[in-house]
Amino acid sequence: MKRLWILSLGACLLAVTSAVLAFEAATAEKSGQTAAAKEEEPKFIRTPDVIYVPTPYEVVEKMLEVAQVKKGDVVYDLGCGDGRIVVTAAKKYGVRAVGFDIDPERIKEARENVRKNGVEDLVRIEQKDIFTLDLSEATVVTLYLLPQLNVKLIPQLEKLKPGSRIVSHDFDMDGVIPDKVIHYKPKGQREHTIYLWTTPLKKEKN
Ligand SMILES: C[S@@+](CC[C@H](N)C(=O)[O-])C[C@H]1O[C@@H](n2cnc3c(N)ncnc32)[C@H](O)[C@@H]1O
User: What is the pLDDT, as a whole number, of residue 40?
Assistant: First the structure.
């Protein structure tokens, strides 16, 4: 009787273990497919509106500090280059971040950067034209573009939730009053300017 009971228990355990293993395999396959679908091979879309110049890491850190990034924020970098801003945001603050770029080379570099730093669970890199984006999910937007491109983004930035922060490296946004303008000179480097705006945007009166 005791032997029968032990045999039944063993069979039960075996069945439960197989079910768990089968579930894990199916989930892994599914998430693999999702990741693959998300990471479509980047292709040529059109010439970027501004060339790639990376923000020095010291300035990246300062931009995120000025934006007061905190747990729960979602950081978008519009024109993410090698992904250094979104990778730093995820590593330093543990926040979710999305980097967008139009240039296929930058997309490859940024994805490699994400993998190298092990932040795949927090950071996504998407090949998109930034002027087609819906920014409503973001609470922090970082920019290193050109003044006229910042201005072109205003209609999209106005759709951010109240209290969202926008930080721009070196370039202002004509017609919108910044909350802060910070001049920052890392050792041995030129002076960099960081602009901060908070939504709702404060427009200059004509
Ligand atoms: C000056 S770099 C800044 C890179 C990065 N944000 C940083 O600060 O290190 C500007 C980036 O914007 C990208 N870019 C230019 N026009 C774009 C567009 N319309 N949509 C998406 N990305 C664009 C370029 O490919 C380039 O990587």
Answer: 86
What are the residue ranges spanned by the domains of the chain?
Answer: 1-38, 57-198
Q: Which CATH number is 57-198 given? A: 3.40.50.150
Distance in Å from the first CA to the final CA of the chain: 93
Q: Supply the residue whose CA is at minimum distance from atom 11 of ligand 1.
A: 79
Amino acid at 104: P
Q: Is the CB of 49 under 6 A from ligand 1?
A: yes
Which candidate, 48, 148, 154, places its Cα nearest to that of 102?
A: 48
pLDDT of residue 39: 80
Torsions phi, psi for 129 (to 5 deg): -80, 125
**pTM (two decimals):** 0.85
Q: How far apart are the CA of 186 and the centre of ligand 1, in A?
A: 22
Torsion of CA 5, 7, 13, 14, to 10 degrees: -160
Q: Is 109 in the pocket of ligand 1 (CB under 6 A)?
A: no
